[in-house]
Amino acid sequence: MTTQSPRKIAIVGAGQAGLLLGVALLDQGHQVTMLTNRTAEEVWGGKVLSSQFMFDPKLQIERDWKMNQWEAACPKTEGISFTVPNPDGSGTKAIHWHAKLHAYGQSLDQRVKMPGWMDEFVRRGGKLSIVNVGIPELEELSAAYDLVLLAGGKGEIVNLFGRNEERSPVKQPMRQLALTYVTGMKRHDYMECVNFNLIPGVGEYFVFPALTTAGPYGSGKTQACDIMVFEGVPGGPMDCWADVKTPEQHMAVSLDILKKFLPWEYERAKDCKMTDDNGTLIGRIAPTVRNAVLTLPSGRKIMGLGDAILVNDPITGQGSNNATASAKHYFDSITARGAAAFDEAWMNKTFDDLYNNYAAKVIAWTNSLLFPPPEHIINLLGACQAVPAMASRVANGFNDPRDYAEFWFDPAACEKAINEAAMKAAA
Ligand SMILES: Cc1cc2nc3c(=O)[nH]c(=O)nc-3n(C[C@H](O)[C@H](O)[C@H](O)COP(=O)(O)OP(=O)(O)OC[C@H]3O[C@@H](n4cnc5c(N)ncnc54)[C@H](O)[C@@H]3O)c2cc1C
Predict the structure, then answer these.
(1) What sign does the CA torsion over 184, 190, 194, 200 have?
(2) Which residues, 6 or more positions from 421, have their beta carbon under 8 angstroms from its beta carbon?
(3) How far is CA 353 from CA 46, 276, 347, in A?
(4) Is residue 351's pLDDT more than 80?
(5) Residue 286 alpha carbon to ligand 1 centre in Å
(6) pLDDT (tens digit, 9 = 90+) per residue, 59-94?
(7) What's 163's domain CATH number?
(8) Which CATH number fits the domain that encloses residue 95?
(9) pLDDT tens-place string over residues 215-272
(10) 149 in ligand 1 pocket by Cβ < 6 Å?
(11) Is residue 2 domain-resident?
(12) Does residue 102 belong to any structural domain of this protein?
């Protein structure tokens, strides 16, 4: 398809947000240049970057833009399961339920996806350069292009945007994160789920199927795996990765945590093997919303996209989903702009609309899970055991977390939602 007003657009950062938007713009007839600091080979052969679970509405955006190349090969996860262990240390479950998602979600290792998407971007006519972009490069780009988008994820450069304090109420990392990519996980006897375990005061553990690399770059070989995600409360017993130096130690610590706090997960995982020596990650994230516009020394303006200006703790698995929602929103805003200039007012309005209509609610819900759950949330999660319609609503909120604003934060609204769900079931 071609557009009436082809524009010259530069995107820095070949990640979930940048590549997706880049190909969609190419398909509209725009000239798109992508600059990124790692080759496809380096990404494929490097360390895992994320657990990148995506829910159906955002997978649909990838499908609409013909970017779902691995959909058939990637394991399909049909539901959400939620478990709280008994606090008495007996190794039994105090709360457990599982509910079906309206449509399946998937996790495709970004080490597979981004190299493939980089090829696809070039195949559809994009220009790809490997450059570690700094201010001099941004200056050059902003002089030559109608619009420059910086989608550098967690790269140092994104700090140039400056933190928006008002929109960033959580000031420091609230979890010690660790990922372990494994094969050999035993399946349970119900549908494949994102298995979410909440251990009050200790942290969270979630685990789900994914598709990862299975050979060197160029082989294109992939394999099914499971991704274990640990979210330890800082200073607590799950914040225990400081001395881990080798993949073997990482695996051993992963299993130790499960054995101690979540024996049912240990039983499934105890014979697992790491997918590869790069299948681990340890880190911390301070949830941050940054200013959308950066003024360069020349006075020219560039705009942020994805994690560069909107980064959350992965506790709710929304980062890649947000990056995808952002790509779609920017695409619509760029398309609607026609031939008019991408000025500072347009940049701010584009991001503010995304923030106000979508992201603020995702952030509020995600941040709420970083603090000890209030009584009404414990009650809600318990009620989901007895009221499947409520469990279904909570599970499907992951598809579009704006629904949580209707009941999550207010005890009375929460009780009303549970009663309504129970009555619906009884009718
Ligand atoms: C432990 C963990 C688990 C996660 N789990 C999930 C999950 O289950 N579900 C979910 O939806 N999200 C998850 N996320 C978040 C998700 O991975 C990110 O939100 C998403 O990848 C952001 O996409 P992006 O395009 O903004 O940035 P990225 O995908 O990070 O891409 C940024 C790109 O910019 C490049 N770059 C950086 N600096 C420069 C520079 N100076 N010059 C040129 N290029 C540069 C990088 O190399 C990279 O290619 C998780 C994150 C972590 C850390």
Answers:
(1) negative
(2) 387, 389, 390, 393
(3) 36, 41, 10
(4) yes
(5) 14
(6) 999 999 999 999 999 999 999 999 999 988 899 999
(7) 3.50.50.60
(8) 3.30.9.40
(9) 999 999 999 999 999 999 999 999 999 999 999 999 999 999 999 999 999 999 999 9
(10) no
(11) no
(12) yes
How far, in Å, is the centroid of ligand 1 from the Cα of 304?
Answer: 13
71 part of a folded domain: no
Measuring from atom 1 of ligand 1, which residue has the nearest CA?
50
Bridge partners (DSSP) listed for residue 198: 204
Residue type for position 45: G
Q: Of 261, 283, 305, which residue constitutes the final position of a domain?
A: 283
Q: Report residue 425's pLDDT band, with 50, 70 and 90 as the boundaries.
A: confident
DSSP-assigned letters across all residues of 168-201 = ----S---EEEEEEEE-PPP-SS--EEEEEEETT
Residue nearest to atom 44 of ligand 1 (CA): 36
Q: Are residues 276 and 345 in the same domain?
A: no
**Residues 11, 15, 18, 21, Cα dihedral to 10°:** 150
Same domain membership, residue 323 and residue 211: no
Residue 250: strand, helix, or coil: helix
Q: Is the CB of 16 under 6 A from ligand 1?
A: yes
Contact 307, 17 (CB under 8 A): yes
Same domain, 88 and 193: yes
Q: Tell me if the pTM is above 0.85.
A: yes
For residues 200 and 259, membership in a common domain is answered with yes
Residues 6+ apart with CB under 8 A from 241: 176, 178, 232, 250, 253, 282
Structure tokens at 239: 């914040």
CA distances for 147 relative to 100, 204, 341, angstroms = 42, 40, 9
Considering 368, 403, 418, which residue would you say is the last residue of a domain? Answer: 368
Q: From ligand 1's centre to the CA of 420, what distance in Å?
A: 39
> Measured between alpha carbons, how far is 38 from 274 in angstroms, rounded to an integer?
24
CA of 15 from ligand 1 middle (Å) equals 6
Q: Do residues 216 and 300 share a domain? A: no
